[in-house]
Structures are given as structure tokens and as C-alpha cells.
TrEMBL record:
Subcellular locations according to the entry: Membrane
Source organism of the structure: Aspergillus nanangensis
Descriptive protein name: MFS peptide transporter Ptr2
Source lineage: Eukaryota, Fungi, Dikarya, Ascomycota, Pezizomycotina
InterPro entries documented for this protein: MFS_trans_sf, POT_fam, PTR2_symporter_CS
Family: Belongs to the major facilitator superfamily. Proton-dependent oligopeptide transporter (POT/PTR) (TC 2.A.17) family.
One annotated Gene Ontology cellular component of this protein: plasma membrane
Amino acid sequence: MATAHNEVDITEPTPDHAPFTDLAQEKEVAAPCEKAISATPDGEEPNAEEARTLRHVAENLPMSAWLVAVVELCERFTYYGMSGMFQNYVNLPLDNSQGRGALGLGHQGATGLTTFFQFWCYVTPILGAIIADQYLGKYKTIVLFSMVYIVGLLILVCTSIPTALEHGAGLGGFVVSILIIGLGTGGIKSNVAPLIADQYKRKKMALSTTKKGERVIIDPALTIQRIYMIFYGCINVGSLSLLATPYMERDIGFWSGYLLCLCMFTCGSMVLVFGRKHYVVRPPQGSVITDAFKALWIMVINRNMDAPKPSWQATTTGKRRNVPWDDHFIDELKRALIACKVFAWYPIYWVVYGQFSGNFVTQAGQMEGHGIPNDLMQNFDPISIIVFIPILETTVYPLLRRLRIPFRPITRISLGFVVASLAMMYAAIVQHLIYSAGPCYDKPGCDASVYDGQTHGNRVHIAIQTPAYVFIGVSEIFASVSGLEYAYTKAPPSMKSFVQSMYLLTNAFGAAIAEALTPAAYDPAIMWMFTGLACASFCVGVIFWFFYHHLNAQEDEMNALDADDSETPGYGLHGQQSHEDSQPTSTEKSTS
């Protein structure tokens, strides 16, 4: 994927370059803007005029970042391939005429359990983040929770074989397995996203020159954006496991699909372990999360965001309080609080997003499948992401940058909310078409639809559902990818996993709201539920932009706080040395 982005090639900076040559002196009569842009040597920070006028570009990912991406690909292959079968596994009875059932708890029971699983998977990242940031570090925490994940998968495979189902082990095994798997995936999710961005070590903008002679600015913020675009692309390549598992479920049994997921996750764990020497690994920072909450408490009781700063205390009280942080850390903490305020709007988005693996699957089963399993349609979500990410990254975003049109994270998040509302509105229209078609109209699956010993859907082609998945996929590129990026760039270096877990926690709140909506997941009320979610997502997107679009103008200033940390590389909040693997960032492969 890296070579797909190589639009320009940056020359190696020359440390001994002297800016005051005879040629430079001859150009002193040129326009001030031209002089300002040509005065700074390659590899150095641009001045204000250069930062404003020169084109900003991103660098390619280091090899260690690709290894982390492969691990995430395998984990997401497992997660989506497994959970994509849950709706049918829980919904349909074992003696279903199509031979595809297991637990037989019905539509509402299936939606309730799958929604709880989603909720659980996004609560547990908090535990993984605390363990990583305070005790083990990101890498060791991921290894630990990978072992937990494997135990849960083993239980799921063993209790889903036909003999176990016939002896009543299915429901108990399913509940235990989703609890353990949710713990495993939560511990991984809060750490793998910041771990991949940790592999990129540049913190400050730098000037460079392409082989075509163009002066450009290497922008770390754009590189982080690219990292998460590629990271999200790998997630969705992994989620294409749903191309295989529905057919395995139908033709062999649920256990075969779960076994495939177990094998794939084991492969990802091996990449994680054997690639250890290649990773940039940052050690834990001790009681950093506890210290952060202490600082927050000082802010609250003093009603002042600067109150925890040692300098503020020395000025206000006349003496310097003994605290384990400095002024810079409080500035970073304030920036993290801004990110958390942004995240507070995400739950409604996750309610919409969660429909594609639950109620959308049931909706597909209410239509004529023409040989297509109802849970196969989910693949149009990752396929749309895989198609649109390269288009945006190689064409749309570079074009916007060339035209000097900013497309900052807040704008992207707002647009994601609006596009998600289009997905819900389209789903409501499809549901209306189903209810308008025979033979069962607003009661899909009635006796009139049973022939040849099988239950068939109403006379609406299953492919009509495709645009809803495409809308969801495009909305993810804007809202979900930007959320990952925002969580990383706005978190203090010693709290990357914890802030990431706060972002993931919004998904749990979304799942809780979806759980509350479960009683409305029946025919024909579900059409109005889709309509309500469409209106809610659109309104939240507009209101969100109105309240937070001013943060776009502060983006560079907030990101510059991390650049200050690079002045003393290798030391964290408490003066602990970070012992990072030596992995310099090359400017030879920067791309536009």
C-alpha cells in the first residue's frame, strides 16, 4: 500500500547546508514571500510564511507500523468473521428448516445479546488502557490480552459443534465465550491504535525538496492521518472474513467459521510475538493516570483549568506545591479534555453504525436472497471502505491540499455523522419496500412464505440493501478514522492508551442506547426506528459542527504540544527514560 502513495520523492536533508550563498544574496531583491520560503534549509522547521504557503505532505509508514497493521488485520478478521454469525447463531433454532440455527432465542434475543457483546467490547478497553499506561506498556498488554482472546475462542468453537449444541452447551458456552472474548478484544483495541502511531517518531514539521525541485513541508499531522487511514483500511480488509464465514456457517456449521477465526487470530499473535524486535515500544509511566485524576480534581475544586500547574500554585499561594507533574503536562491534559468533549457526541453515531451487524442482517433475511446468505451483505461495508480510502488518500485529500482547502478533523467528523444519517434513511426506505411487497407484507416470514420446506423473504431483491452499507462505510472513513486520529494526537504521550479507551467507551454508550432500542426491533416498528436514527444522526452532525468547528483553527497549536516533548526525547512525565528502539524516520520516502 505504501507504493500507492508515492506521488513525490523527498531528497535527503543536508545538515551542512549554508543558506547564505551568493545566489541567495542575489535574490534579496526578490519579493519578501519568495525570500522567506527559500531561506530555510531542508530538514529544519519552516517559518510562519512557509508553513502558510508551501504544500504540506505526509511520509510513508515505517516497517514496524505495517507489522502492527497486520496484527490488527488478523484480530479484526477474527472479530468480524465471528460476530457476523452471532445474529443467526442466536436467532434461529437448531432444527431450523434451513439448517443454519443454533440457540433459537429469536430476533429480539439475538439483537439483545449481540448488542450486549458490542457494549462489553467497548467497556473493557479502559482496563487494557490502565494496565498498559501504568504497568505493562502497550506491547506486553496486547500480548497478555491476546492469550485471553484465544481462550474465549476455544470455548466458542468447542460449544458450537453439533454434539455440544444437542446436549445444551450452546447458550452457556456462548455467554462465557463472549465475556472472555470481549475482555480480550478490549485489551487489544485500546493499545493497538496508539501503538501503530507510536512507530512514527517525527513530532515537528520539516522542510524538504522533492526531486522535481518543489519545496514542501513534511507534516507529522498528515502522516498520523495517513497512518490511521491505512490502519482502518487494514481493519476492513480483515473484516472481509464475512465473505467466507456465512458460507461455512450454511454449508458446514457455525463451528467451522469460528475455527477459521481462531486459526487467523493465532497467526496474528505469532506476528506480534516474532516481530517484537522491530517495534518502537514505550514503557509505562507509573501512576500517570492516577496523577491525571488528581490534577483534574484540583481543577474542579479551584474552578480553574490551570490550577494544577506548579507555576500557578507558586504565583497564587506563594509556595510551590510538590506534585509529580509539570506545567507542560497540565497543558497536555487540558488538550485531552477537549478531545473527550468531542468524543461525547459519538454515541449516536455508534448506534447507527451498530445496525449493520444486527438489524441490517435481519432485514436482509426478510428479502429474496437468490442464493446469497443474509449475513453476507455486511461485506459491502468494508468493501466500500477499501475502495474509497485509496481514492481519498491519493486523489481527494492531496487535491484539497493543493487548492489550500482545509479539511480538518472536526469537519470530517461532522460529515461522517451526516453521511451515516443517509444510511439510516435509506434503510428505512428499504424496510418500507419490504412491507409493501408480498407474500407477507409487514409480517415477513409468515406461513405464506414457506415453500420447498424453506422460509423465503418478501419479493424484494437482497441487493437493494447495498447502498445502505456503502453509506455506512463512507461515514466511517470520516467519523471513525478521524476519531482514532483525534484520540492519538490530543492525548498526552504517557496516556495515549487511556484517551483511546475514552474514545472507544463512546461505542459502549452507543451500544447501551441500542440495547434500550431493542424493544422497537420488531415488524413494523423497526422502520420508524431507522427513521428516528436518521434524523438524530443528521441533527447531531450539524450541531456538533456548530459548537466545535472553531477547534479546526487550533489544530496545529494543539498538535505542537507533542513537538515540545521531542526536545528531550526518551523521557516521560516523571523523568523515566523511555528506552525506545532506535528507528529514525527517513525523509527519503515522504509523499504528498
